[in-house]
Amino acid sequence: MSGDAKRGWRDLPLGALILDAGNAEGYSTGDWRTLRPVIDLQKCTHCMLCWFFCPDSSILVQERRVVGVDLEHCKGCGICAAVCPVKIRAISMVEEAEAVRAGGDRE
Amino acid sequence: MSRVVALTGNQAAAEAMRQIRPEVCAAYPITPSTQVMETFAQFVADGIVDTELITVESEHSAMSACVGAAAAGGRAMTATSSQGLALMHEVLYVTSGLRLPVVMAVATRALSAPINIHGDHSDTMGSRDAGWIQLYAEDGQEVYDSLLQAVRIAEHPQVLLPVMVCFDGFTTSHTIERVQFLEDAEVQAFVGEYRPAHPLLDLKRPVTYGPLVLPDYFTEIKRQQREAMSQAPRVIQEVGKAFGDRFGRFYGLFEASHLDDAQVAILIMGSAAGTARGVVEGLRQEGVKAGLLKLRAFRPFPAEELAAALAHLQAVAVLDRADSPGSPGGPLFTDLRAALDGLQARPAVLNYVYGLGGRDILPEDIRRVYQRLLRVAAGEEGDTAVCEYLTLREDPIRLAPVGGA
Questions:
Q1: Per-domain residue ranges for chain B?
Q2: B3-247: which CATH topology?
Q3: Residues in CB range of B378: below 8 A, 6 or more apart
Q4: Alpha-carbon gap, residue B110 to B150, rounded angstroms
Q5: Which residues have a Cβ under 8 Å from the Cβ of B341 and sit 6 or more positions away?
Q6: DSSP alpha helices (H): ranges in B126-204?
């Protein structure tokens, strides 16, 4: 159900079936967020617990290291901050409005 | 070679299911449809049909399992009645909304309260907006024939809607009648191989069934369902004709008796059509121009075809086997009145609710309806358009003498 131009009833798959696999990536859910995870990459040990638990696959990883959050899809559920090891506490949830005021849409 | 046997309507339905050989049947027993799955389960136990029979814990689960099986890419069938159909209600909409061609036999029955196990159309009338095609059968032969046709109607690429074949609880479900069965190979050739467009189990072409659809698309999906229903009358007629060409028993959207030159007629569905036909034959011998229209396809409602078939009459009585309390009349009546609205001169239309909770409707009851129609046609009585109960103890026309027409 993603895409730029919205299709009419004659052109849509019957029964609202989704025929293009993996299209959830094209559906932005980031604007549902009221709390934003902010990762302190100085503290992060790259244990990958947040990556493992994130229900929206929004923890960005490059070369086995956490590099940030996909804010197009992160809904701000806070699971990443909750599972971040107690001794580390590298992820904090901040008010989305404050985060936008402080630094724009991207980390 | 066909076989002629004496069986109940339920057993005829089970035999149709055996010959269709659906991949999956999921069912929960309820009177008066229990015997359908009881007989079919025996077929499975005896190894004469290789269907996966799932004995679920409720009708809600029965239809849910059928939805899963059909989405996976298999033919799925079930049977139910009354409270069972009511419990399925939520999943009926899922079935039609996902465009899954599930076929179900429904032995129609009253809904509680008061609790009553006998036949009327209250259960299926409650499902009339669920997006299912509804075919009503008069007898065991029609149950059998309609179930075979239902598979092809449901799976037609321009339809892809679930179909329920409705037959009167006990009157048809439990009455032993003469039924002519086709050979297994003939049935298989008629229903053909099912080729689902998007089976969930096709791992090379992954597909998502049942996504969240918000206001920006929901209307479009519902419009598709209306389109499918608008194609269905043509397909029902094509399949009914193909069945007749091959096996000699023709089916359409409805069946008319003595209608062409009739002055008055009754519109009715289900087993009571047989009683009404007998009354019409008797009236014809007396020179009364009485006709009958037995409706087979209630959903889709063939509004244009019915208007064309009834336009020449002076008065029509619609006999509803379910009430719609608070509505101007029974469900069949209100749909017919809407269908006749476009006519420049429409017949007077009377409405009677009859046969609730299995109450008998006798030939003399129907005869009284024709007598009233004739009085309305002659201008002796007005077209009151008030829904009245037939066979009620205080029913005024029941108390009227049964005289000549």
A1: 3-247, 254-399
A2: Rossmann fold (3.40.50)
A3: none
A4: 24
A5: none
A6: 140-155, 184-191
- Cα separation, B183 vs B45, in Å, equals 21
- Domains plus CATH for chain A? 28-103 (3.30.70.20)
What DSSP string runs through B297-345? EEES--HHHHHHHHTT-SEEEEEESS--TTSSS-HHHHHHHHHHTT-SS
Model ipTM? Answer: 0.89
Whether omega before B12 lies within 30 degrees of 0, making that bond cis, reads no
Q: Report the Cα A73 to chain-centroid distance in Å.
A: 4
Q: What is the pLDDT of residues B249-277, one digit of tens each?
A: 999 999 999 999 999 999 999 999 999 99
Q: Whose CA is closest to B375, among B256, B288, B280, B259? A: B288
Chain-centroid distance of CA B338 in Å reads 20
Q: Chain B: which residues have CB within 8 Å of chain A?
A: 97-100, 160, 197-198, 205-211, 213, 216-217, 219-221, 223-224, 227-228
* Nearest chain B residue (CA) to A9: B220
Find the helix or strand (DSSP H, E) in which B93 lies.
Answer: helix B82-97
pTM over 0.90: yes
- Chain A, 31 to 70: residues with Cβ < 8 Å from chain B are none
Q: Is A18's Cβ below 8 Å from some Cβ in B?
A: yes
**B375 φ, ψ (degrees, to nearest 5):** -65, -40
Q: Domain B254-399, what fold?
A: Rossmann fold (3.40.50)
The alpha-carbon gap from A10 to the nearest alpha carbon of chain B, in Å, equals 7
Does the N-terminal peptide bond of residue B22 adopt cis geometry, omega within 30 degrees of 0? no
Would you put residue B287 in left (φ > 0), alpha (ψ -120 to 50) or beta? Answer: left
The kind and range of the H/E element at B290 are strand B290-295
- B221 vs A contacts (CB less than 8 Å): 9, 12, 15-16
Count of helix runs (H) and strand runs (E) in chain A: 3, 4
| Confidence (pLDDT) at B403 | 57
Structure confidence by residue, pLDDT tens digits, B48-91:
999 999 999 999 999 999 999 999 999 999 999 999 999 999 99
Let me know: does B301 contact B233? Beta carbons within 8 Å: no
> Could you read off the pLDDT of B162-190 as tens digits, one per residue?
999 999 999 999 999 999 999 999 999 99
List chain B residues with CB under 8 Å of A6.
216-217
